[in-house]
Amino acid sequence: MASLTNKNDAGVKIAFKCEGCILDVDVAAVCARSNMIKAIKAMVDAALTDSSNARIIITDEAHTLLLMLEYIYLGHYDVRDTFELPTGLVHGKHHPAISHIRVHAFGKKYKVSGLATLALEKLRCPESYIAAEDFVGVLRVAYQYSAEETDDVRTDLLAVALARFDNVVASQVILTQLAEFEELRDFAAQLLPHISRFAAVRLSKSNDQNAKLVAHKNETIQLLETEVSTHKARADIHIGKFCAMREKYEGELIKSDGLEKLLTARSKQLEVAMARIADLESASSRDPAQGDASKTQILGLQNLLKYEQARAARTQTQLDQSDLKVQRLQSQVRGCEAKIRRLQSPVHGHEAKTERLQSQIRGCEAKNERLQSQIRGCEAKIERLQSQVRGYEGKLQRLKSEKRDLLGMIKIVKPRFLELNQQAREYRRERDEAREKLRRDAKEASEISRKASSAKSWYQMQDLRQFTPLSAPSSFFMPPSFAEQAYWDQRFRDNRNAFEWLLPPPDVAQLIGDIIRDASIDSPRILHIGAGTSNLSSHLKNLISDSKDVCNTDFSKEAVAVGKALEAEQVQAAGELPRRENVDECLTLWEQSNHLSADDTKQLLHSDGNNGRLFNTIVDKSTSDAISCGLDVEITLPYAINSNTTSQTNPDSSAPAQIAKVHPLHLLAVHLAALTEPSKGRWVVVSYNEDRFPFFSPFVATHAEGALRDDIIDAGFPDPKRLWTLVEKRQIKVPPPSSDGGIVTQARRVVHTPDVFHWVYVLARTDVQLTMRDSASG
User: Fold this and answer.
1) Residue 142 exposed, middle or buried by CB count within 10 Å (0-12, 13-18, 19+)
2) Which residues form the domain of 685?
3) In 238-327, at which residue ranges do the beta strands (DSSP E only) sit?
4) For a designed S-S bond to 115, which of 107, 279, 281, 517 qualifies (C-beta 3.0 to 4.6 A apart)?
5) Which residues contact 179 (CB under 8 A, 6 or more apart)?
């Protein structure tokens, strides 16, 4: 929707302001949908006699306003990837749940019929699924609006969180992120009774799984033991066979040895018989008479020899058969031995596996005991949380009772308030009339003075002064310009006495000393900004060994001169001068410096007294309060002071410079970070404001309220949230003033004086490094 034209010219016109562009809308269509805008238009129409030239301009978050207009005109709305505004700017896509929550809040805020219900339905649909890592970001958007505008959304988000808590990883992500934001502590308190219950359920499930695992392992062990018994029985059978075969083998060996011995004996007998035959043949040849007898003996011996040779051959055959049988038995014995080894190997493996499983079972049993102990702890914790919940319920009842009492008091006070409001309107009307009369009188007096100057005789009259009009100052009805240098220069010229803001110097010095000790700062170097004419510098000298380790700054030249002179008077009155050559050696450093200027910041760091040394303690007594009264400061991007981790550390000199405006406190935080030691320094702020810094929780929503836009950070301006962390924030009760303007002591306490509190902020410098360019600008 690049342009929306009003089709109804009767009565007051209505327009929406989006990012600097004013869109006239169809009055009839808007009033038909929004009861609140319709009521506002009716009130304005009734209050004005001629409302044809009047226009109601509604300013709010641009993206959500356009979605609401889309619903008013079309009856529905769609969340797109990008959204083009009438000015030409393009908004990136938010998480769909964030867009639906904002539309829901606008539907209730502007009382647009049906819009809140539609947004809630879209929030519950699957397309708006919220992952665990996105949950806290979506929740913070819901808590940016009032409880009346997002009460049902918060209930749905609580259900989403409870559904995520059945997942261990998701619950840890959500709890870790919730702990970082103080504004979500009410939501975290609602989750407390459920957290331990989910933990107990998870432990119970884990316990059941552990029991099933133990049973499975026991069954495995039983199977392994059965298999081992089977293998052992088979091994015993084979071992019996092996022993019988071994005995048979040994018998065959003995038999073979006997046959070899018998064969040897018979061989010897054959040799003897052959020798005898040879002797007989020889004898018969020598003695023919004995030849027949010898032949007979020879034939007998030859027959015996043939018989023995036959027996020897049979014995040799038996011996050969016995050798073959022994070889077969040896082969069978080796096979049995190998088979027994194969059977013994799985037995050993099963025994080792059984031992490992038994060890695992013992570990599971120990784990089961630990889980049982944790379950008992969770049950005890649930009991404690339930007790706390009962306590919170009692506290809630008391708060409701107090609320009813307060509502009763409001009903009593409301008539008086209305009466005072009516008186205030009368006073404002009388003030406007007095201003108008004063302007008319000043104009008439100026005309009279001009006419009187033309008459020479009137200049000779001595009593002319009583007719000369006195012009009223233009700031007569305006508050002091605490952020303007001219205001402070004039103030310190008119009043050169010592002046203190908020707390007396001894209390502030004691507070600074405690913080230095808690931060373990061994050698403090103190930067006292906005020192003015305060006596605090004299008390800060008690915290350091060298007076030059305290540097007092103020952007008013008059304040620096007066403050240094007052400190010199105190030094001379205290008698410190005789121990030093001159008064300056006893004084702390005094420098004129504008802490909203990057050039002054660099000049202060490299001044003669500081010589480039960084500070580790910054004292800020209501200086931030004064600076926050000023307008946004115009700077050039990329900025002269950069973070080493950003892409703008070494900006391209050829890139065109950008002009932007930032809240003064953002600029002060960056400049003080450039003067402070990273990872060590502390910035101590004493303020009257409970929410002084826009870059700490609770965060402001718009640039007009002090929010720092992402495009400025992307263009090269350091993010103060990355330079400082809020370590401590506490109240300090201020004693009520006495009737003479002093501080009331315990003995002189004024009855029924209302309590007044100031706030102390302790900010710690992070480890993010900063660099300053040679040509500082801004």
Assistant:
1) buried
2) 500-554+586-772
3) none
4) 107
5) 188
Q: Closest Cα partner for 260 from 178, 315, 203?
A: 315
**CATH number where 95 lies:** 3.30.710.10
Q: Return the SS3 of 768.
A: coil
Q: How many CB atoms lie within 10 A of CB 143?
A: 19
From 239, 311, 325, select the one nearest 270 (Cα to Cα): 311
Query: Both 396 and 291 in a single domain?
Result: yes
Across-strand partners of 662? 633
Beta-strand relationship, 526-529 and 550-554: parallel
**The model's pTM:** 0.41
For residue 658, what are the CA distances in angstroms to 599, 662, 715?
18, 13, 8
Contacts of 187 (CB under 8 A, 6+ apart): 139, 143, 154, 157, 158, 178
Q: CA of 446: how far to CAs of 1, 366, 451, 457, 467, in Å?
A: 54, 100, 9, 19, 11
Give yes or no for a contact between 544 and 619, defined as CB atoms under 8 angstroms apart: no
- Residue 283 CB coordination number (10 Å): 14
Q: What is the pLDDT of residue 292?
A: 67
Residue after which a domain boundary falls, among 129, 148, 163: 129
Averaged over successive runs of 10 residues, the pLDDT of the chain (778 residues) comes to 39 75 82 84 77 78 84 85 56 74 85 86 77 76 73 72 58 66 68 58 57 67 66 69 74 77 78 77 68 72 76 79 79 78 75 79 81 82 82 84 85 84 85 82 69 42 33 40 79 79 88 92 93 88 89 92 89 64 81 92 87 92 88 90 62 70 92 94 92 73 70 90 92 67 44 72 93 63
Is residue 689, in this structure, part of any structural domain at all? yes
Among 89, 113, 129, the domain boundary falls at: 129
CATH number for the domain spanning 617: value is 3.40.50.150
Residue 249 located in a structural domain: yes
Residue 467 lies in a domain: no
CATH code where residue 391 lies: 1.10.287
> Taking the CA atoms of the chain, what radius of gyration do you get in angstroms?
53
H helix runs in 454-535, sequence order: 456-459, 485-494, 505-518
In DSSP notation, 172-239 reads HHHHHHHTT-GGGHHHHHHHHHHHHHHHHHHHHHHHHHHHHHHHHHHHHHHHHHHHHHHHHHHHHHHH
pLDDT score for 189: 66
Angle between helices 147-164 and 115-124 (to 10 degrees): 10
- Compute the distance between CA of residue 664 and CA of residue 680 in angstroms, rounded to an integer: 24
Pick from 529, 507, 503, 536: which is nearest to 757 by CA? 503
d(CA 99, CA 64): 7
Q: Distance between CA atoms of 30 and 72, rounded to whole angstroms? A: 6
Contact 23, 3 (CB under 8 A): yes
Task: Report CA-CA distances (Å) from 212 to 204, 205, 207, 219, 247.
Answer: 13, 11, 9, 11, 53
Give the H or E element holding residue 40. helix 35-47
The count of domains in the chain is: 3
- The confidence score (pLDDT) of residue 9 equals 46
How many residues can be counted in the chain?
778
**Residue 70: half-sphere exposure toward Cβ, Cα within 13 Å:** 18
Q: How far apart are CA 631 and CA 483, in angstroms?
A: 8
The token duo for 632 is 């946004």
Long-range contacts of residues 424-431, Cβ cutoff 8 Å, at least 24 apart: 431/477
Residues 658 and 753 in one domain: yes
Cα 92 from Cα 103, distance rounded (Å): 16
- Name the strand (E) or helix (H) holding 482: none
Q: Within its chain, how far is the Cα of 441 from the centroid? A: 63
Q: Exposed, middle or buried by CB within 10 Å (0-12, 13-18, 19+), for 190?
A: middle
